[in-house]
Design a protein that fits this description.
Blueprint: E1 2-6, H1 8-13, H2 15-22, E2 30-34, H3 38-44, H4 49-65, E3 73-77, H5 86-97, E4 101-104, H6 106-118, E5 132-133, H7 139-149, H8 154-161, E6 164-165
Parallel strand pairs: 1-2, 1-3, 3-4, 5-6
Helix pairs in contact: 3-7, 4-5, 7-8
Length: 177
């Protein structure tokens, strides 16, 4: 089974599901699970009880949607926020599904892809970071994510603390859950 976990907007777009089907993955082996408010709670504190409860809730919902037998679960964390709670996802999914779980973290894949595509070696001085967001980022959200990245990615931390807010960054359709 391939389990796609993402925001309602991402899951409802069917982009990932359609791409998998185009690549000959049978539709019945794909489960899309929207995780309303999970990214917000992760921004506030990626290790909180709220995050644990939401991951558990959505994992249980996903398990109910599965229509075929499987011997392992490949989980695509289709939201960059989710990678900050990787350990919680792993623990909860293993417990609920009682099967081997393979987590695909987009944060690692994106960074690796950029460096592989350019075929260049970069030093930290060669890289600049800017954060563009359509939404305001609260002090609580900055603190929650900031403490995770401050020491390993100081330029990213600085960009998080001083984001560029652009309300017209991309079209947005609000979904209620």
């Amino acid at each position: 089974m391939i389990l796609l976990l993402g925001t309602p907007t991402t899951i409802n777009s069917l982009t990932y599901q359609n791409k998998l089907i185009e690549n000959n993955i049978p539709k019945e082996k794909i489960v899309g699970q929207s995780c309303f408010l999970l990214e917000t709670k992760i921004q506030e504190n990626p290790f909180s009880d709220d995050v644990l409860e939401l991951i558990t809730k959505y994992a249980e919902e996903a398990k109910q949607k599965a229509v075929c037998k499987y011997d392992k679960i490949i989980v695509l964390l289709a939201c960059t926020h989710y990678g900050y709670s990787l350990e919680l996802f792993d623990k909860v999914l293993q417990k609920i599904f009682c099967l081997p779980v393979i987590l695909c973290n987009p944060n690692e894949s994106m960074a690796k892809s950029v460096f592989e595509l350019t075929h260049e070696n970069y030093s930290p001085n060669d890289v600049s970071v800017e954060l563009f967001s359509r939404a305001n980022i609260s002090p609580l959200e900055k603190e929650g994510i900031g403490k995770l990245i401050k020491h390993e990615a100081p330029k990213t931390y600085d960009a998080l603390i001083n984001p560029i807010i652009d309300k017209q960054l991309f079209p947005f359709e609000k979904h209620e859950n």
